[in-house]
Specification:
The chain is of the alpha+beta class and about 150 residues long. It is about 40% helix and about 35% strand. The chain has three helices and seven strands, in the order H-H-E-E-E-E-E-H-E-E. It has helices at about 1-25, 30-60, 120-125; strands spanning about 65-75, 80, 90-95, 100-105, 110-115, 130-135, 140-150. Helix 1 (about 1-25) packs antiparallel against helix 2 (about 30-60). About 5% of the residues are buried.
Amino acid sequence: MFFLSIVYAIGVIGLGFFSVYGIVNGETGVGTVVAFFIVWILAGAGLLARRSLKLKLKTLPEQTTHAKVFGKTTKTAGGEYVAGNDGSATGCYTTPVTTSHFVSFEFDGRRENFAVDVSLYNLLKENDTGTLTYKEYENDLMFIDFEPVE
């Protein structure tokens, strides 16, 4: 998160510098500059909202409950393929492939999905029971730990 804030700050400074430079030299219209600043302001607001939710979740107390592993799923994203300029099959992948791992726990009469680390995902089996530790804020859940009962 800190890295994104630094990138955002550098982008705002750079955008401001090049926008003023372009206006002074007559190369950039004022409307273009205003549009870029609006985009940067919205991006900054998104960063702040995400950061405030993360901070809120960190300050909430941990909740512990007996739970059962109901199911496991993965979500794969990326790996878009672009064909070569000549229409041949010699293209390239434009984005890396990423896989997210989720475990569905059943507890307190409800089922909830949590994003988990791949090592825990590989350890757990359906119908495992144990102690689930998590944090909850409105509808946002944050997985902390799961200790299976032997």
